[in-house]
Amino acid sequence: MSELLLNYINGSWQRADAPYQSVRNPATAEVIAEVPLTPAEVVAQAVEGAHAAFQEWRHVPAAERVQYLFRFKFLLEDALDDLARTITNECGKTHAESIAELQRGIENVETACGVPLLMQGYNNEDVARGIDEHMIRQPLGVVAAITPFNFPAMIPLWFLPYAIATGNTFILKPSERTPMTSAKLFALLDQLKLPKGVLQLVNGSKVTVDALLDHPLVRAISFVGSTPVAKYVYSRAAANGKRAQCQGGAKNPVVIMPGAEMEMATRIVADSAFGCAGQRCLASSVAITVGAARQAFAESIAEAALNRVVGYGLDEGVQMGAVISAESKARIERLIGQGASEGAQLLVDGRGKTVRGYEAGYWVFPTVLDGVPPESQLAQIEIFGPVLSLMHARDLDEAIRLVNARSYGNMACIFTSSGAAARQFRAQAHAGNIGINVGVAAPMAFYPFSGWGESFFGDLHAQGKHGVEFYTQTKVVVERWHSGWSRQF
Ligand code: NAD
User: Fold this and answer.
1) Among 45, 73, 332, 465, whose Cα sits 20 to 30 Å from the Cα of 199?
2) CB 167 within 8 A of CB 65
3) What is the number of other CB atoms lying within 10 angstroms of the CB of residue 170?
4) Are 84 and 98 in contact (CB under 8 A)?
5) Backbone angles phi and psi of 115, in degrees to 5
């Protein structure tokens, strides 16, 4: 039976007078929920409630604010399996992948518990005779995050804990394709008995997002999603005078050097390219083999693609789930066909496949295309599916030129046994997250998630100290007190 989802506004669950959209389980195509597409008037109520709550919340000492987060961490851990099942059912990934995503989210809750230390300012005594100067950090006010479908727990948790720990009030607008996880997260948050209005959940799509972008009381916008929408959100937020951090799409290359440990490289690249059905902004989608690495890697990655077990993410032994929607499946299959027509050779073709017992699901099996021309569309475009394109380079310099010939800059990786090659790659690759013998270079919560180029618009990234800086404004105080002290004491 499908569940009717609600918004969470001013401490209570509310039914929206709004059009509803169906949420489907990608493995079965069954409708599992109906999500409201919240209109601007209701968004305004959420913003105004958050603004009212901010007046008190900002004065609650940081050490007290983080006590809620300590409790939230334990509630998340107790609910791990239930949350993971929800993620798998609405997003399609495997249960193990859902657990892993939750753990990365919880890491952010833990890191934000350090906010009393992380948001400290600094000061100097006697910047001039009898004058002291201080820098303090203050919260912004109402802040909002707009998140994508592919990590429905982790990505909201890149923002929410830092935002409220630093004294802001926070509104989440989750993906309308995977909103059930947020409803579960907010059911846990409701148990914390935070002051009403500190956390708000508004469901919806473009209309809801635009209402947040245009409301004058929203001070900052965090966004994660595709590049065209990231650019749009960044420019509209900026035009309205808001602070914004917008993470976009990706096309991540991995370089395989001769002499790399081939069995390890194959296993890790296969996990990176096909894990989460390739629907990960840190998925490796282009593998560039250098010199003699070409044949061995092409053979072993093709075998790994063929052997990957695809199915419903809650079934035992499944290694890869479905893609998010019928439209997404059709788009990925069309791009695979386009790659073949642009001159690539299909080593493994994952189109037109199905899983027994789940024939209605949105299945695309692992696909490997060899000899993808660097100038082809397939080499540039984000496919966001389990598709790996192979390219070849004579030497590391040429491989790095291919790595840098993309507009995206989320991640670049190298597999090598040479420290010199790794060092050159680290210095010259144009990407903000670098992996060395690592296939998904996801920064821990205490490092910034450092996309570059078309993968990020803004300057302060999500997570860690960047998150704290993004959600606070600096205030500098220059201070003189008349005193009759003696200069000798
Ligand atoms: P999306 O851009 O379609 O949607 C993201 C969010 O924007 C959703 O909440 C959606 O409701 C909203 N939205 C969509 N269209 C809009 C519009 N026209 N106006 C205003 N709001 C709009 O992205 P998606 O398909 O949910 O997620 C996949 C994308 O996210 C991929 O491109 C992936 O690379 C990217 N992603 C990036 C990162 C990163 O860290 N850089 C992380 C995860 C996902």
Assistant:
1) 465
2) yes
3) 27
4) yes
5) -60, -35
Return the pLDDT at 394. Answer: 98
Ligand 1 centre and the CA of 224: distance in Å? 6
As beta bridge partners, residue 369 has 346, 389
Written as one string, the DSSP assignment of 372-408 is --TTSHHHHS---SSEEEEEEESSHHHHHHHHTSSSE
Average pLDDT over residues 212-238: 98
Cβ 448 under 6 angstroms from ligand 1: no
Tokens of 253: 């290359």
- Residue located nearest, by CA, to atom 28 of ligand 1: 225
Chain segment 95-137, per-residue pLDDT in tens: 999 999 999 999 999 999 999 999 999 999 999 999 999 999 9
For the chain, percent of residues with pLDDT exceeding 90 = 97
In this model, does residue 188 exceed pLDDT 90? Answer: yes
Atom of ligand 1 nearest to the CA of 204: 11
What the chain holds in terms of domains, given with CATH numbers, is 3-248+455-477 (3.40.605.10), 252-436 (3.40.309.10)
> Cα–Cα distance between 53 and 336 in angstroms, integer?
50
Cβ contacts of residue 12 below 8 Å, gap of 6+? 196
- For 146-187, the pLDDT digits (tens) are 999 999 999 999 999 999 999 999 999 999 999 999 999 999
Mean pLDDT in residue range 413-421: 98
Q: What are the strands of the beta sheet with 3-4, ordered from one edge?
A: 3-4, 31-36, 20-24
Enumerate the active-site residues.
Answer: 281
pLDDT at position 483, please?
A: 72
Helices (H), 215-285: 227-239, 262-274
In angstroms, rounded to a whole number, what is the distance separating the alpha carbons of residues 288 and 295? 12
Q: Specify which residues 408 forms β-bridges with.
A: 453
29: tokens are 């195509």
pLDDT attached to residue 486 = 67
Listed as own residue / partner, the contacts of 132-135 with beta carbons closer than 8 Å and 24 or more positions apart are 132/478, 132/479, 132/480, 133/476, 133/477, 133/478, 133/479, 134/476, 134/477, 134/479, 135/474, 135/475, 135/476, 135/477
Question: Measured from the CB, is residue 175 less than 6 Å from ligand 1?
Answer: yes
Rounded to 10 deg, the angle between the 154-165 and 95-112 helix axes is 10
Amino acid in position 129: R
Encoding tokens for residue 373? 């021309």
Task: Decide: 249 in ligand 1 pocket, CB within 6 A.
Answer: yes
